[in-house]
Amino acid sequence: MIVSLLAAAAITASAPEDLNLLVFSKTAAFRHGSIPDGVKAIKKLGADNDFSVHATEDAAVFDK
C-alpha cells in the first residue's frame, strides 16, 4: 500500500486529464489496518488533482 501512495503522490504534479488509477488492495491473510486510510488518501489525491480513482479488492477486474 505504501508503494501505491507514493506512486499516486508522484503523479499528482502532472496528472493527465484522462488518468484513471486502480487501487487493488485484496489480501490473502493478514490485513493491515491502514489499508482503508491509504485508499481514502489516494481517493483524496485524485479528487484534489483531477484524476479518477477506482478502489477494489475484486481480482476479477484484471484480465489477460
What does this structure look like?
This protein is of the alpha+beta class and 64 residues long. The chain is 39% helix and 16% strand. The chain has two helices and two strands. The chain has helices spanning 2-11, 35-49; strands at 20-24, 52-56. It has a two-stranded parallel sheet with strand order 1-2. Helix 2 (35-49) links the parallel strand 1 (20-24) and strand 2 (52-56). Helix 1 (2-11) runs parallel beside helix 2. The longest helix has 15 residues, at 35-49. The radius of gyration is 12 Å and the shape is flat. The model has no long low-confidence stretch (mean pLDDT 84).
Portion in helices = 25-40%
Uncertain residue segments = none
**Helix-strand string:** HEHE
* Strand percentage: 15-25%
Structural class: alpha+beta
Distance between the termini: 23 Å
Number of alpha- plus pi-helical segments: 2
Which descriptors apply to this entry?
16% strand, two-stranded parallel ribbon, 64 residues, single chain, 2 helices, alpha+beta, 39% helix
Record the SSE blueprint.
Blueprint: H1 2-11, E1 20-24, H2 35-49, E2 52-56
Parallel strand pairs: 1-2
Helix pairs in contact: 1-2
Summarize this structure briefly.
This protein has 2 helices and 2 strands, in the order αβαβ. The protein is α+β, with helices and mostly antiparallel strands.
